[in-house]
Write the structure tokens for this entry.
Amino acid sequence: MLYKLIYLFHTDLSWLNVFRYITFRTILSSLTALVICFVFGGWIIRKLGAMQVGQQIRDDGPPNHKSKAGTPTMGGCLILPAITLATLLWADPVNIYIWLVIFVIIFFGGIGFADDYLKISKKNSRGLSAAAKFSLQISGALIVALTLYFHPGFGSYLNVPFLKTVSPDLGIGYIPFALFIIVGTSNAVNLTDGLDGLAISPLIVAFASYLVFAYLAGNIKTASYLQIPYLPGSGEISVLCGAVVGAGLGFLWYNAYPAEIFMGDVGSLPLGAVLGTVAVITKQELVLILVGGLFVFEALSVIFQVAYFKLTGGQRMFRMAPIHHHFELKGWPEPKVIVRFWIIAIILALLSISTLKLR
């Protein structure tokens, strides 16, 4: 919104023309969110600590996690306002995609807040029931999927990486497909958020990747050159992705090992849902398998663990799931697990960017 107010005076002050460039506003958005998290991070930590909003630790978790009990959680209460404010300041306020993602932040943030609140008030690590949480996630994702499906100019086709001539039209089937992407990503990120800084860094990398995808898809010349779908208005999503990157870096300052604050479900659930929504908006849903490969890996480890346990009558495929706990129980120090997973996330992100040319 601030961008629109400033741009009103561009005819009198020619240097204000710079505000019409998405790249410039993306940088401003990222810096704004970063500064907000830096400035208010310490205050939020002290406030949550005073309110005894502490992390509840699983009884069956790795023994070294017992020392994390009581660490302030619900860090999403810092991240989400920073992203929202930075986006509203520097993105186009009439862009439907921006408002759709802000809806996702608020709706899924509400689910995460309720889940965290119940965990803290009941002094256990369960929170909302799986059925209640999943039903709410489906409801929010359905609103997004229906809005996009009926939005003029947004097709129900699927962009297939590496294959420039293959774009199957899913028709009405695109709605459940979008539901799966949004809800699945939300839960996958939530499962990954189990070690200090483990989830936020791959999220920063993923949103930096989609920042590039959104910018290119919103420019008719680059979209045509790269033979990717041209999506008018999607370039503004770059501004939002920049805000997530900035807020993520600001939060990582406090969340890095040993963490002073945890993200909580109020952070992981909406950030995962936003990542899925951005993937759908930019028509890079399948690339999410690469961009968010670490989250996919974590989610699959849980699915395989549960399935194997049931099929074998009690045997385990991994020492513990999600998979990061397996490596902890194998004797890897927590910082080593975290950094190695970050490296994997960066490699996968670079591979995802390569799909723009390998077509």
In short: The CA atoms of residues 33 and 81 lie 9 Å apart. The chain has a mean pLDDT of 89.
